[in-house]
């Protein structure tokens, strides 16, 4: 018979869950704060008010500290996240060996629970190292001509005869300059903080395998913890136990009481299972997104670029409809229009302006990054304006929805795992 601490413990579990949920939602909102959705309408008003209020409430020193951390962690190459990943991996594995393995051996003694985790652990470390140190597909003077010919421009998302403002080399379609690493990468996907490197045409395959291995690791680990807990439930006949409710009446066992009881008796194991489920969902969604990109021959960078171009087309087409004179003004200064629509930039940029100059070269470096991004945006504006002179916005949007790099399912997969050797494509690059 279980009795006693139920209400307090349940309150603790609910409070702990709510607290973790709230922190996760706040982190998610912080990272999504620059989405167009949060910049207009009621949500935009709320966002801007929050920024103004936080400006008043949070001391200057905290902003500088936050900005410093943000700069160190996200605007420069750092091994911080690799160390965090390795630490969590070791911790998870250690907990598995110390907490879960003895129960698995006891309840399922004829099974082998050693080989799969060790093999999986080693493949994870190996894939992290390979993804981190392999060449993502850096564009050099030697290979740039081949890359320019390889994917070809579509005249909408990528244009002919463009040049990287930093590398001073021609800019092949689907490539991008990474301001953290300081080079252009072919078929650029994104700069990954976990691998501390760019992910591009050459190392994206390792990253996909790394993601799939992570997913397997979390799924296998969670499943094994569940089985250990299942063994405990069966061994202790917990489903046959009655508990005393608030009115001192014996009640049959239910899931809520069972989970609470396990949490009190085996907190580390239940925490491991809960973390495993959370990571499985988070990494699962991220992996599915990248598998979808691989199947359709797209990159994260391309999707962002298409989204931005789409918003520019709609904005210019709308302005065109409302006022032809205003449209001409925008033509002269596309950036003014961007700024007009984004009166308060992110908290990060506000802080940047305030702390500008304090750290000398570091921040002037950052200003360069921002200014080249603005130049890129301006270029898109001018290009879309030119297109709108010849075609209707619907026509351009229609074209934008087609992915010209889609070679069909098998060739798309091939191009991920054997880049530059896609059947029927020019592979004479290196
Ligand atoms: Zn470059
Ligand atoms: Zn990079």
Question: Which short descriptors sum up this protein?
Answer:
430 residues, mainly alpha, 2 domains, two-stranded antiparallel ribbon, 66% helix, globular, binds zinc ion
Describe the protein's architecture and organization.
- This is Palmitoyltransferase.
- It is found in: Membrane.
- This protein has two domains: 78-137 and 188-298, no CATH class; 139-187 and 300-417, no CATH class.
- It is 66% helix and 4% strand.
- The chain contains 16 helices and six strands.
- The chain has helices at 6-31, 41-57, 60-74, 80-107, 115-133, 144-151, 204-235, 255-265, 267-296, 300-322, 324-332, 334-341, 347-355, 361-390, 393-401, 409-417; strands spanning 176-178, 183-185, 190-192, 197-199, 242-244, 250-252.
- The strands form three sheets. The chain has a two-stranded antiparallel ribbon.
- Strand 5 and strand 6 form a beta hairpin.
- The protein is globular and about 80 Å long.
- Bound molecules: zinc ion (2 copies).
- Residues 164, 166-167, 177, 183-184 line the site of one zinc ion.
Layout: helices, strands, pairs:
Layout: H1 6-31, H2 41-57, H3 60-74, H4 80-107, H5 115-133, H6 144-151, E1 176-178, E2 183-185, E3 190-192, E4 197-199, H7 204-235, E5 242-244, E6 250-252, H8 255-265, H9 267-296, H10 300-322, H11 324-332, H12 334-341, H13 347-355, H14 361-390, H15 393-401, H16 409-417
Antiparallel strand pairs: 1-2, 3-4, 5-6
Helix pairs in contact: 1-8, 3-13, 4-7, 5-7, 7-9, 8-9, 10-11, 10-14, 10-15, 11-12
One zinc ion binds at residues 178, 180-181, 191, 198.
Enzyme class: transferase
Main location: membrane
Subcellular location: Membrane
């Amino acid at each position: 018979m279980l009795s006693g601490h139920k209400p307090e413990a349940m309150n603790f579990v609910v409070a702990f869950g709510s607290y973790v949920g709230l922190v996760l939602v706040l982190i998610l909102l912080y990272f999504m704060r620059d989405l167009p959705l949060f910049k207009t309408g009621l949500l935009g008003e709320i966002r801007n008010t929050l920024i103004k209020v936080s400006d008043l409430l949070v001391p200057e020193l905290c902003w500088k500290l936050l900005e410093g951390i943000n700069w160190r962690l996200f605007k420069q190459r750092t091994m911080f996240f690799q160390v965090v990943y390795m630490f969590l991996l070791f911790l998870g594995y250690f907990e598995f060996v110390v907490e879960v393995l003895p129960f698995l051996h006891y309840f399922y003694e004829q099974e082998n629970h050693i080989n799969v985790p060790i093999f999986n652990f080693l493949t994870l470390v190996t894939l992290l190292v390979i993804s981190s140190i392999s060449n993502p597909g850096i564009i050099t003077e030697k290979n740039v001509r081949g890359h320019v010919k390889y994917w070809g421009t579509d005249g909408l998302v990528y244009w002919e005869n463009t040049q990287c403002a930093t590398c001073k080399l021609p800019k092949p379609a689907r490539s991008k300059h990474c301001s953290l690493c300081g080079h252009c990468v072919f078929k650029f996907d994104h700069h990954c903080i976990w691998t501390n490197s760019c992910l591009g045409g050459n190392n994206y395959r390792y990253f996909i395998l790394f993601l799939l291995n992570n997913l397997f690791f979390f799924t296998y680990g969670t499943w094994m913890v569940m089985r250990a807990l299942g063994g405990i439930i069966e061994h202790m006949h917990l489903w046959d136990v009655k508990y005393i409710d608030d009115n001192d009446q014996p009640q049959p066992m239910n899931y809520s009481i069972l989970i609470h009881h396990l949490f009190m008796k085996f907190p580390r194991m239940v925490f491991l299972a809960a973390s495993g489920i959370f990571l499985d969902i988070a990494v699962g969604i991220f992996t599915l997104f990248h598998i979808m990109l691989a199947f359709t021959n797209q990159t994260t960078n391309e999707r962002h670029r298409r989204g931005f171009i789409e918003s520019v087309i709609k904005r210019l087409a709308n302005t065109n409809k409302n006022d032809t004179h205003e449209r001409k003004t925008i033509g002269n200064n596309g950036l003014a229009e961007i700024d007009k629509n984004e009166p308060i930039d992110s908290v990060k940029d506000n802080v940047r302006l305030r702390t500008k100059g304090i750290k000398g070269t570091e921040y002037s470096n950052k200003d360069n990054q921002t200014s080249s991004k603005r130049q890129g945006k301006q270029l898109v504006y001018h290009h879309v304006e030119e297109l709108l002179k010849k075609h209707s916005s619907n026509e351009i949007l229609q074209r934008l929805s087609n992915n010209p790099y889609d070679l069909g399912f098998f060739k798309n997969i091939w191009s991920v795992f054997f880049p530059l050797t896609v059947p029927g494509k020019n592979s004479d690059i290196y």
